Amino acid sequence: MIELYHNKEDCCGCGACVSICPQNAISMQEDENGFIYPFLSETLCIGCRLCKEVCAYQNQLSLNTPKEAYVAASKNDKNIVESASGGIFAEAATYIIKNDGIVFGVAFVKENSRLIPQHIGVSRLEDLKLLQGSKYVQSDMRNSMNQAKKYLDNGRHVLFSGTPCQVAGLKGFLKKDYENLITMDIICHGVPSSQMFNDFLQLNYNKKNYDVVDFKFRDKSSGWGEMARLDYFDRKNKLKHRLIPAHTSSYFHFFLKTQICRENCYSCKYACEKRTGDITIGDYWGIGQEHPELLSNSVYSEMKGISCVMISTSRGEVFFRSLNSQIYADLSKFEKISKHNEQLREPSKKGKDYQEIFRLYPRYGYQAVEKYYKRKYFINIILHVIYNKIPLPMRKKIKKLLR
Fold it and tell me: How many C-beta atoms surround the C-beta of residue 92 within 10 A?
């Protein structure tokens, strides 16, 4: 029997093996912590080994060192507001769609009262908002790789965005280079499971009779930072919004501390300078330290959000130039960006919380994780509640004093 992976560190859950199997002998199944892994049916498998050939996580994939690095932001305020950082993905996607292309990214899809992160393809500008904003949870690729291949083979332009391992998975699955494909990987901190995310929502919000319809990890109503927003219908069927400061939420807190990621994230070979995508995007954290001269210009705003962009291929260069009329962009350096984005240098690290969380969660459910968080970080929660009541301009002054 074919061994799809030996240890959990050997699988990123990208689903390339599922997509390539001619017999539909492989399916993704959740483990005790909700992380998805491929399961092989012995009765359906014909031993073709295509699953092993396309695995870009276990096989060596050609990676590219960034050629150029930029500070960047959209010229469209609406795109910036709907995006996690500076709206560069939105502008790239808009360009592709206007040129009769397809854009693949992550959307929250409502299934049985749960928000399931799925990779989907969109071809209409009005659907683009589904893909905007960070989703700090692993997405299910479903049939997106096969769909992307179909569009590519038909000559359509495709923009595929995802984590570095998902982009690698797509490339492994395609097995050839397509001129009409642009890949965009994100600076990834690691991915928690969809099951844990939904258990968090169920415990804290669904039990209050909220009908949760969306969750934005990076709301910007109070500025570019770490504030989430829950969208839900209340008991009177009125759509309401609730802001959630990052460090007063157990799930958000543990994600930012990289304590609830899947096993392979802690040894990820793609958490490095060399990239899987044509273009890499992320938040330009530390912009005030690295490029203070740009903040004196009204073009960039720390309130709205600013992106970092790294170009790793010639195709990426050509494509990025095509966005010139839609974005602001100024040269930067990889060293400046990586100084404030650790996962461009090395994988995330486990801490003491990781061991305790994954001791509690499979045995006692998310309520045990919630209790652990509130007990251990009680003072931290109180301080963040107080801090978030301070007016934003004063918070900025406090941050400058603490640097």
Answer: 25
Residue 18 sits in a domain whose CATH number is 3.30.70.20
- Domain boundary among the residues 54, 73, 88 is at 54
Same structural domain, 42 and 144: no
- Co-location of 223 and 322 in the same domain: yes
Grade residue 398 by pLDDT with cuts at 50, 70 and 90.
Answer: low
**Domains identified in the chain, total number:** 2
Residues 36, 109: one domain? no
Cα–Cα distance measured from residue 333 to residue 60, given in angstroms and rounded to the nearest whole number:
27
The predicted model gives 148-161 an average pLDDT of 98
Q: Are residues 27 and 98 in the same domain?
A: no
pLDDT at 319 over 60: yes
Q: Check whether residue 72 and residue 25 sit in a common domain.
A: no
pLDDT tens-place string over residues 43-87:
999 999 999 999 989 987 889 999 999 999 999 988 898 888 999
**Which residue segment(s) compose the domain that 18 sits in?**
8-54
- Is 228 a member of any domain? yes
Which residues are paired to 216 by β-bridges?
229
- Say what the pLDDT of residue 399 is: 60
